[in-house]
Amino acid sequence: MKFLICSLTLLMFNSYSFAAKDDIYLEYGIGASKLFSFNKESNKVLENYSTAPSLKLLIGSRLNKSKTIWFELGYSYNGEMTFEDVSFNSQSFFAGLKLTTNPMKSFSMFARSGAGKTQSTTSVKGQDATSNQSMHYYGGAGLSYRFDIKRSGALEIQHINDGSSDEAINGVFLSFNQFI
Q1: What residues have CB less than 8 Å from 122, skipping those under 6 apart?
Q2: In terms of DSSP H, where are the helices of 18-154?
Q3: Which domains does the chain have, with CATH numbers?
Q4: C-alpha span between 29 and 140 (Å, rounded)
């Protein structure tokens, strides 16, 4: 909860103190996620899990009136991934930075990274579900297309790594941005 309150405070501070007027945006996206590990032995098991639908919602504000550096605060949900009698899902709150080429051009590229808190649930058929909270870090890159002055769409690949294990989630998202 402290993480969320600190992140919201920082976003509000940056939004009103440093951002130029009307340079706050909402981003919402849908995608697909898959469990992954850099450890080859772990990955042999994780690759058997199904691909899951994913959702994300975030708010961003540019820093120091820069068109290329943005602060973001968001939420993501990874749907149920199953293998045999085991299912796994997760949700996360996160904060980070987004670096982009000029977002006012028709096409732009971006990279984002940050950290957050993840709540994951694992359940085995016939047993009680177990929950786990952990810190994570993430990185992503993508291509954005501007529809008009206020709206754009983006295709992004993302990697979310659990800070307490070698497990991660790889995802791909189709997102829509709306300046507010």
Answers
A1: 86, 87, 88, 129, 130, 132
A2: 40-46
A3: 2-179 (2.40.160.20)
A4: 14
Render pLDDT for 147-169 as a digit per residue (tens, 0 to 9): 998 999 999 999 999 888 888 99
| CA count, 13 A, side-chain hemisphere, 45 | 9
Q: pTM for the whole thing?
A: 0.83
Tell me the pLDDT tens digit for each residue of 18-65. 444 568 999 999 999 999 998 888 888 899 999 999 999 999 998 888
H helix or E strand, kind and range, residue 80: strand 69-83
CB atoms within 10 A of CB 23: 19
Q: Which alpha helices (DSSP H) does the chain contain, by range?
A: 2-17, 40-46
Backbone angles phi, psi at 4, to 5 degrees: -65, -45
CA distances from 13 to 9, 17, 64, 136 (A): 6, 6, 12, 24
- The label of the residue with tokens 């984002």 reads 112
